[in-house]
Structure formats: C-alpha cells, structure tokens
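Consider the tokenized backbone below.
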C-alpha cells in the first residue's frame, strides 16, 4: 500500500500561517536561517506533545505526565512547548552542540514567561552523561539515536534511557524505513517560500550505514546545501524493539500510521500494532514502558542449597 514517502515529518503538518503572496517576503539562501527552516520543515511540537499524552493514556497510566526529558533536543523547541502546555509541566533538554542551544535560547527560551522558564532546564551535554533527575517521559525524536551505529552503543544508550525514566514511565522514539529508505534519492517538499530537500545520499547494504543531508532551495535559485548532515545506521524496528527490551523496558510497542483512504498516504494517526505494511516509506513511533512494580533482583550471592541425592 502506498504511503507517505516523507521520511522526516512524523507528525501532521502545522496549520498554514501563510500571508497573502503580496505581503510575503521571498526567502533566499542569504536571508535564511537553517535552524528556523529545519523547525518549519520537520518539527510540529503540538502534535509531539499530543502524542506523549496519548501514549500515556493508552498505556493505562494514571493522570497525565508532567516531567519530560528531550534527548538530542537541538533548539529545545519541544521542551518549550511542553512547559507552556500545562502549569505543572517540567522539561529537561539535552544536546551537546552549544551553537544550536544558543540559537534555541535566543529564539525560544527567552520568549517563555518566568514560570515557564523556571520549569525548563537545558544541558549542553552528551546524552550518555548520568546525573539528571528521572522523568516520567523521555523522548528521542527525529531518529537522532540512529547515530549510535554499533549494537553495543545503542544498547548502552537504551540502558541510560531506562535509568533516566521513573518507574511507571515511558520512553518514546521514532524510526523510519521502507523500500525507498534503501535507495539513494532526493525527495522535495515545497513549503512556505522554500523547498525542503531530504537527500538520501548514500546507503550501504552491508552495514546499513546511511548518509543523509537536508538542503533548502529557494525560488531565486539559491540553496543552503547540506544544511544538516546525518551519518546514521538504518536500524530496523525488530532490532530496536529487541534492544529496548534487552535494556530493561518491560513492554515495547510499535505505533504504525493509519492510511488516508482518499490519498492512500499516511493520515497522521498512529496506533499500536504488530503488523505494518510493506510500503515505500514509513515513519513509526516506538513506545517503551517501564513498569511501576519492578521485579526484585534475585540475590545470586546466596549459595544454592546442595541437593542431597538419595544413596
Ligand atoms: C536530528 S537533530 C534532532 C533535533 C530535534 N530533537 C528534532 O526532533 O528534530 C540531532 C541533535 O542531536 C545532537 N546530538 C548528537 N549527538 C549527541 C549526543 N551524543 N548527545 C547529545 N546530543 C547529541 C545534535 O547536536 C543535534 O542537535
């Protein structure tokens, strides 16, 4: 079944905020900011927050979650949306790039009111660094964890994620795939005054290594070429689920996107399932659950009773 071949928009698009053409200033490479264009192209924070709350309810957790951690937070726009959403919400953002964090500070965090700002903390750190308080929900979106290419590295990250989630909490992440993800191709999406280009530049079937770029093209023929570069391993859903379970999560489910009957593309509604379709391009969410009651570890230091065999 055909589905959206868009590999970098996991969420419904924002409502259009287009100005009438006469009042719109035309974008060009020299006047554009790559972080702003990235957010406009691939992030929809309201839908992300909706999904967090829906996953919480659907996994039969009480009330609504309030504490969020956003790994690979970039500009931390999702964390900002989370603290704005409800008065009791708190967010921790973690990213190791000081430049993107500075941009996020100037563009987003500084626009929060005093209460919202007090409930947001952003850390310039590696996601593997321990030391932050546990949260109810941890998110790692837009496939950022694909940068861990070795099995042992991804397992170590998932174990760290497990440690960062409170008992009864959730770890939410996304993944992409489909037959088109194994080909070297460009896909264009025309947005408000610019074109977003997802360039699957290189795929190595032996290692599953991929190199992807994002370019932005403009009506005047200029381009922000390779505005973002991703050197990833294209992990399969089966591998990711196995590793999450190995890291300690008690239940892992894949949420697959429904189909719009008219367009036969994805409809933006994700539901847990054990069966997906062999479509050209798909995006899915994974919901990893940490139980409230954790099984007690067996004390292996106690010697086993010696069995006395009847003589
Ligand atoms: C694909 S962007 C994700 C941005 C945003 N979270 C989103 O959903 O679109 C990946 C981000 O991960 C950050 N990053 C890469 N390796 C990291 C690491 N080991 N620890 C923390 N952040 C890392 C990069 O600096 C970059 O901002």
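A designed sequence for it:
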């Amino acid at each position: 079944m055909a589905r959206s071949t868009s590999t970098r928009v996991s969420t419904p698009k924002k409502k259009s905020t287009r100005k009438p053409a006469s009042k719109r200033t035309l974008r060009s490479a020299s006047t554009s900011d790559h972080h702003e264009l990235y957010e406009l192209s691939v992030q929809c924070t309201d839908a992300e927050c909706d999904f967090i709350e829906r996953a919480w309810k659907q996994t039969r957790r009480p009330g609504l979650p309030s504490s969020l951690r956003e790994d690979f937070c970039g500009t931390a726009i999702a964390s900002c949306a989370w603290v704005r959403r409800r008065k009791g919400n708190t967010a921790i953002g973690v990213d190791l790039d000081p430049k993107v964090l500075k941009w996020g500070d100037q563009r987003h965090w500084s626009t929060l009111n005093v209460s919202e700002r007090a409930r947001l903390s952003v850390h310039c750190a590696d996601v593997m660094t321990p030391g932050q308080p546990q949260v109810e929900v941890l998110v790692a979106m837009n496939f950022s964890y694909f940068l861990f290419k070795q099995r042992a590295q991804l397992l170590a990250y998932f174990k760290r994620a497990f440690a960062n989630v409170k008992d009864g909490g959730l770890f939410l992440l996304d993944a992409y795939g489909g037959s088109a993800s194994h080909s070297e191709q460009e896909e264009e999406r025309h947005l408000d005054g610019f074109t977003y280009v997802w360039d699957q530049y290189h795929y190595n079937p032996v290692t599953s290594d991929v190199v992807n770029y994002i370019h932005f093209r403009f009506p005047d023929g200029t381009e922000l070429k390779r505005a973002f570069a991703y050197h990833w391993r294209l992990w399969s859903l089966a591998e990711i689920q196995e590793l999450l379970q190995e890291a300690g999560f008690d239940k892992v489910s894949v949420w697959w996107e429904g189909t719009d009957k008219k367009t036969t593309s994805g409809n933006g509604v994700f539901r847990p399932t054990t069966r997906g379709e062999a479509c050209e391009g798909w995006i899915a969410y994974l919901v990893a659950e940490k139980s409230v009651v954790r099984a007690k570890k067996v004390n292996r230091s106690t010697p086993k009773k010696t069995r006395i065999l009847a003589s």
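Residues 42-43, 72-74, 94-97, 100, 126-127, 141-142, 144, 147 surround S-adenosylmethionine (CB under 6 Å).
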